[in-house]
Amino acid sequence: MSRPRRILLTSLSGQFGGMELRMIAEAQALKALGHHVAVAAPAFDGSAALIAGLREQGVAFTPFQPQPIFTDWRRRHLALLKAELWQRRRLARLRPDLVHVFFSWTDQGLDNLWLAGRSSIATVASVHNHFPIPDFPAWHRRHLGTAFGSLRGLYGVSRSARDRFVEIYDPYIPADALRSVLYNFVDTERFRPSAAARQAARQRLGLNPGLNPGLNLGLGPGGESDILIGAVGRFDDQKKPLDVLATFARVRQRLPGARLLMVGEGPLEAALRARIAELGCEEAVTLMGFQPDIETLYPALDLHLLLSRNEGFGIVTAEAMACGVLAVGSRVPGTDEVIGDCPAGRLVAAGDSGQAAEAVVELLSQSADQRAALGEAGRRHIVARFGKPAWQQGIAQFYGAVLDRKEAV
User: Cα–Cα distance between 323 and 193 in angstroms, integer?
Assistant: First the structure.
């Protein structure tokens, strides 16, 4: 194993979500490997949750907002001057041997990467979404060489996320930089089928206990059991919650007793509520907002529905399947790697609510025994591919290779 190093995890976070949870887990994994770890990120609404999670792991948090050299066109010249005169010295005071930049979007991370590269500090990048391909202006092209000059390795949380990042930045990524895939892990002890959790959650929602596909409790759809479809994700355009609602409206025509639970928050909440009223299905749809204890709700579901236009890694689908829940997702990068060819899930064309509804009805119309067997197969699939031990091993191998190369250099 590489000797202990000082590793600084950085991001340009704007909300507390999957990427921030990944930062907490990665900090913990690196500490377990003997490294000295700190996190530097800007303060944002919800950053208290990130700081609290890091504190539980004994990891220091430093508020740090890089100058917007790439991300604010109007202030780019002043930002470059401030970064040269002030922020390089501030970064040097943190004394990192390696800076890890978490990319949440196409250019959200470039400012951090440039600062470390300009300071000749070794860097790695992780890619947490499937980005659109930008048309970079001359200003960006002039400074991207500096940003990627110290890059020793990168990984994507899915093959598609990694490959798109490489496609965008290939002219600037050093040829010998390590290029890996480290899938987001699922805590399969936290996310697991539970009869007790199902009963408690469904009572909380005013539903009959019914059948969890991963638990053969003997009640199926169309009988005394209420069918509960869940959709966990932000209410924004990427996650397409209005497509979820359109799909559910079609499902109800075939399964009138179906209910929909939408867990999340975001800018489309008002539009969702208006559309629910237009459809006249207020009694069948529940919006719950963000739920930090989501593991207590997944077991209540009969099926999880995620119809995003793209995903870095469809973590909510993986969590639901780990709880024995059947899944339908759009055939887009990220989600397709989670569901794959697992019989417990179906992939449908993005934006096609008719096809999505057919897949939902097909899965939910199977017998109780069939659905139980599928749910069990889904959990086995997630444990084998996305369990935490496999992820920890991947983290150790990735950082070991990067740090050994840095030492050799």
Answer: 4
Rounded-to-integer distance, Cα 177 and Cα 170, Å: 11
Cβ-proximal residues to 34 (8 Å cutoff; 6+ apart), any chain? 1, 4
Q: With beta carbons less than 8 A apart as the criterion, state whether 319 and 246 touch.
A: no
Question: CB–CB of 61/41 below 8 Å?
Answer: yes
Query: Do residues 385 and 185 make contact, with C-beta atoms less than 8 angstroms apart?
Result: no
Rounded mean pLDDT of 320-341? Answer: 95
d(C-alpha 332, C-alpha 339), whole Å: 11
Convert the pLDDT of each residue in 395-409 to its tens digit.
Answer: 999 999 999 875 654
From the list 294, 303, 291, the residue with the least C-alpha distance to 225 is 303
Helix (H, G, I), strand (E, B) or coil at 112: helix
Contact 266, 232 (CB under 8 A): no
CA 24 to chain centre: 13
Mean pLDDT of the chain: 91
What does the pLDDT average to over 19-38? 92
Q: For residue range 159-199, list pLDDT tens digits in order.
A: 989 999 999 999 999 999 999 999 989 999 999 998 898 99
* Dist. CA 317–CA 184, nearest whole Å: 12
285: β partners: 260
Residues 89, 86: Cα–Cα separation, whole Å: 6
pTM over 0.90: no
Contacts of 148 (CB under 8 A, 6+ apart): 113, 117, 169, 172, 173, 174
**In this structure, what token pair is assigned to residue 366?**
């199977």
